[in-house]
């Protein structure tokens, strides 16, 4: 897997005409689950997709699941939520980096591109929205993970599409 800065990733895919045939997957990486969201074919709107169970022994299975999603949905890149904190490396940030490193080591996503996007408060925002529904804790957790992935991916899509519009307006 290859890291590419957020704007550069989008710009490269536009230049290669890859966005006409492909979508993005948004990932919210947690200690037990990975929330997954997918963009629409025009890469404007993010929607919840699924939650993958994550543990130390199933990274190969998770990589295989991603291979399937890439193939089925014509995915061109991942947008991975990352808790940016300029003061220090948080445990969540280290966890995200380790997950990406483990995925890369499987070799199943060789050459696949990803970028990081600030996930600041995405999970907290979803938790606040879901609180009045009084859901079962497991159901609530999986919904939080899925919709946090939507927030991450939508934030990225909004930003890069806004930049594209302003570049073409020049």
UniProtKB/TrEMBL annotation:
UniProt KW keywords: Cytoplasm, Hydrolase, Nuclease, Ribosome biogenesis
Domain (YqgF/RNase H-like): residue spans on this chain: 22-126
**SUPFAM superfamilies, per this entry?**
Ribonuclease H-like (SSF53098)
Q: State the Gene Ontology BP annotations.
A: rRNA 5'-end processing
Gene Ontology terms for molecular function = hydrolase activity; nuclease activity
Highest taxon in the source lineage: Eukaryota
Is Nuclease set as a keyword in this record? yes
InterPro entries linked to this entry: RNaseH-like_sf (IPR012337), YqgF (IPR005227), YqgF/RNaseH-like_dom (IPR006641), YqgF/RNaseH-like_dom_sf (IPR037027)
Pfam families named in the record: RuvX
* Name by which UniProt lists this protein: UPF0081 domain-containing protein
Organism of provenance: Cephalotus follicularis (Albany pitcher plant)
